[in-house]
User: Fold this.
Amino acid sequence: MAERGIKTSKPRVHYDCTKCPAFCCSIYERVTVTKADINRLAKHFSVSVEEAREKYTAPWENERVLRRVKDSIFEETCMFLDQKTRGCTIYNGRPGVCRTYPARSRCAYYDVLRFEQTQQGDKNVVPVVKIIFRDEDE
Ligand code: SF4
Ligand code: SF4
Assistant:
């Protein structure tokens, strides 16, 4: 999850967040935040920790997640995504999970994006994918 305008393609990283519509900020219903993340949000917006918790996060089972809004490409996205540039508006204040994703040299969603753009012969096409997690026992 990257800041637009800052190229993240390092030698051994095979994705470029500046050329991606931010799948990771949009298709996951849960962007989990820790207490430290809420503290960082509070500092970023110069509000109290309680205010940051209420304004920017929502309950999800036993945890807190970033609030989501309707999106112009996907059904929903993170409230902090700039829907025009597809960049994070709180880059320095973003949660820890956003800082580490995808935690490997390839991003599966970027690969799907590039695959479909090649397959469809259109470098502007966006495959609108959705991810649903199901327990195998269900
Ligand atoms: S889905 Fe992958 S390439 Fe796209 S913004 Fe997220 S980490 Fe970057
Ligand atoms: S905080 Fe920023 S990087 Fe994290 S999900 Fe929201 S828009 Fe994406």
